[in-house]
Design brief:
single chain; 506 residues; alpha+beta; 4-stranded antiparallel beta sheet; 19 helices
């Protein structure tokens, strides 16, 4: 991310609010909590460091925060020392981990690979992330993470850089071709100026051209989390197969110690964490072999609550509703539901969702039913899907072996050859790296290549997901997947699907 050289006065000012003025990893601190989200939110669509956004807000930006800052002077060194003594006594000696749970932290990580950022977001379901967006911004050619492992392999490093440049060349060509196509194909909205029209179609071009980019492309993210969850993530980073992750873990600890004295402890991964991945990969290969059976179905309904029984998903939801609002024992309620007519059950469901609005959530009784899907989706799609924190995922490693996705606009613009050429270039190096340096091979997988994922969602979580991802504002790839899943739910339980995707959509 862009970070200019600061004046001495600016450096001195920022040092009050970030743990490192220039480094790629730092924590934001000493700002009122309600100020931090709008500062963070700018980054998804603006290629500047969070620190510059803070500085702007402290001076002449659109978010003037100076009046909200504490006016008193606190001797921080002494306060930190007292906090350290407290943590050593209560956290270390007596094991009160709840203290670490109460310590809210704001971590910023700049210029990390797209590969690692996705893995980090899956390491713990509780933290809240916001990320630099390839949908709204155009990465520059220097925005690539060169895996540290390649420094010892100059020939492979040279091949890696050739692949990066080839795929980035394809990306730039696609942006140009798509912009020209969209200028002809898209109509201006009512009252839309030429400048706004060009800006809008440029974003669409970015969105589709990014399918040529590899997972080594740099991104940045901010995350709000407590110290206990940070410990968990740091341990997993140290156990991660890539050197990039281990370097990042060390930087996080170094910066975290500046504001969380004695809280960041027990950071060494256990023998289990260090070995379980390879052990399970070995046993899986022995049992299943390395051959792949490629199916044509990208969305498959694997299982759902009540499948193969005489108690349907509708029966389960109705039973949980009646149990919750009657006060009667569940066994009695279940027997009653079995005897009910279908129209009676439907009436209960309709009553439960009567007048539900675009931004309302279902009642908790809908969490009693789960649907499990196997998805074969692009990395671009997956990086959006994994952000849904209430859904449980099992995921495979990035690969080029499951095929790829070509955006419809690329087809319409007659630019398939540009994208396919980039994909083939990445695939050649992927197979070589898989043989020689398997931990590095995922870096050259593109956003277009498909990953296998199992998505396990209760009906409450799926309703929230569909309400966001079936709208016309949603990115086309994840929207198509969302409608396919919704269609499969409608086939087996139409009474539980009629109220979904209720926000305005195309």
């Amino acid at each position: 991310m862009q970070m200019r050289k600061l004046t001495p006065e600016e450096e001195k000012l920022l040092q009050n609010f970030v743990t490192d003025v220039y480094g790629p990893v730092y924590f934001i601190h000493s700002l009122p909590e309600f100020i931090i989200p709008p500062i963070n939110s700018k980054v998804s669509r603006k290629d500047t460091s969070w620190r510059l956004n803070i500085l702007e807000s402290l001076t002449d930006g659109d978010l003037d925060i100076t009046e909200y800052l504490p006016k008193h002077s606190i001797p921080m060194e002494r306060a930190i020392e007292k906090a350290r003594e407290f943590h050593e006594k209560w956290v270390e000696k007596f094991g009160h981990s709840s203290i670490a749970e109460q310590h809210l932290m704001h971590l910023c990580v700049e210029d990390v690979s797209r590969l690692l950022s996705g893995d980090i977001e899956l390491m713990n379901r509780r933290p809240a992330f916001i990320e630099w967006s390839q949908r709204y911004q155009k990465p520059t050619r220097e925005k690539v993470v060169i895996p540290p492992e390649l420094e010892k392999e100059p020939v492979l490093k040279e091949k890696f850089l050739k692949v990066w440049n080839a795929t980035y060349d394809a990306y730039e060509k696609l942006v140009k071709v798509l912009t020209e196509y969209l200028r002809r194909a898209e109509e201006k909205k009512e009252g839309e100026t030429e400048e706004k029209f060009l800006n809008r179609i440029e974003k669409i071009a970015f969105e589709d051209a990014r399918y040529a980019l590899i997972l080594a492309t740099r991104t940045s993210f901010a995350v709000a989390l407590n110290a206990l969850d940070l410990q968990d993530i740091v341990r997993k980073l140290f156990a991660h197969p890539t050197e990039e992750a281990k370097v990042l873990a060390k930087r996080i600890v170094e910066q975290g110690e500046k504001i969380a004295p004695s809280t960041l402890r027990h950071l060494t991964p256990t023998p289990y964490q260090m070995k379980v991945r390879e052990r399970l990969k070995d046993i899986s290969e022995k049992i299943l072999g390395d051959k792949r059976a490629i199916s044509s179905d990208d969305v498959v309904l694997l299982d759902y609550t009540g499948k193969g029984t005489d108690f349907s998903p509708v029966d389960t939801v109705v039973a949980h509703i009646l149990f919750t609002y009657s006060g009667k024992e569940f066994v009695e309620v279940k027997e009653k539901v079995k005897a009910m007519k279908e129209e009676e059950k439907e009436k209960v469901i309709k009553t439960a969702v009567e007048e539900i609005g675009e931004f309302d959530h279902l009642i908790d009784a809908f969490k009693s039913v789960r649907f499990k899907f196997q998805l074969k989706i692009s990395e671009a799609n997956w990086h959006q899907l994994l952000r849904h924190r209430t859904i449980i995922f099992d995921w495979t490693e990035p690969t080029v072996e499951n095929g790829f996705v070509i955006p419809p606009n690329v087809v319409k613009a007659g630019a398939e050859d540009i994208l396919i050429g980039a994909l083939k270039t990445s695939e050649e190096l992927f197979y070589e790296l898989k043989e020689k340096m398997p931990e590095v091979s995922p870096y050259v997988v593109t956003n277009a290549h498909k990953r296998l994922v199992v998505m396990n969602a209760d009906l409450w979580a799926f309703d929230h997901f569909a309400n966001l991802r079936c709208t016309k504002e949603a990115q086309w790839d994840i929207r198509e997947t969302s409608f396919k899943m919704l269609g499969l739910i409608r086939e087996v339980a139409p009474q539980l699907a009629f109220f979904m995707a209720r926000r305005k959509r195309a």
